[in-house]
Specification:
Low-confidence stretches: none
Shape: globular
Strand order of the largest sheet: 5-2-1-6-7-11-10
Largest sheet: 7 strands, mixed
Order of helices and strands: EHEEEEEHHEHEHEEEH
Structural class: alpha/beta
Mean pLDDT: 97
Radius of gyration: 15 Å
Strand content: 25-35%
Distance between the termini: 12 Å
Length: 190
């Protein structure tokens, strides 16, 4: 039986930041579940960088079904956690169930991959204090306010916490996360 990985997300998550790790982890042999506030079809977005804009733009993205509601997640059943970005973390960080999930993974020192705005959830769960992380650069002050050291880099590894700035960093992010994950929860026969 393959180790299970949980992705916590919701509406307005960045499409690539959910679907790239989802597909990459399945390709690696892991069983992957997507958790959201409720079991429903989620509506993701596409964030892009366009000349003349001071920040990213947002367009409608893919839809994808959630497998499980946050309230029904038993963190003990999962080997690792992925926290995508987009706008979803802005409201998900206020959900006590997603904070419960994040706190359990952090407390058990299980691998956590976070990207872009995902650290807003990690910060809300109190799991960034004393850590080295990266995030979408506009979150530098938020990360520092949560007690972390911000590094503007493709991927930052601090123990079992692996972070990246945004979807252009996917390759470095997943390469580092898979190194941590294979050490903590290898796929049988891999």
């Amino acid at each position: 039986m393959a180790p299970k990985i949980l992705i916590v997300t919701g509406d307005a998550a960045e499409s690539l930041e959910v679907l790239y790790p989802y597909q990459r982890l399945i390709e690696e042999g892991y069983e992957v579940h997507i958790a959201a506030p409720a079991v429903k079809k989620l509506r993701f977005v596409v964030h892009d960088f366009e000349d003349g804009f001071d920040t990213y733009t947002e367009k409608p993205g893919y839809t994808w079904p959630a497998d499980i509601a946050f309230a029904d997640v038993d963190p003990g059943e999962y080997a690792a956690l992925v926290v995508p970005g987009g706008r979803a973390p802005e409201y998900l960080r206020n959900d006590p169930e997603v904070r419960r999930i994040l706190s359990a993974f952090a407390g058990d020192d299980k691998p956590i991959a976070q990207i872009c705005h995902g650290p807003l959830i990690t910060a809300a769960a109190g799991a960034l204090d004393g850590r080295r992380v990266t995030a979408y650069p506009a979150l530098e002050l938020d990360v520092k306010a949560a007690g972390a050291t911000f590094e503007d880099s493709e991927a930052v590894v601090d123990g079992t916490l692996v972070s990246a700035r945004a979807w252009p960093d996917h390759s470095a992010w997943m390469r580092e996360f898979l190194t941590v994950l294979r050490g903590k929860a290898p796929v049988s026969g891999a």
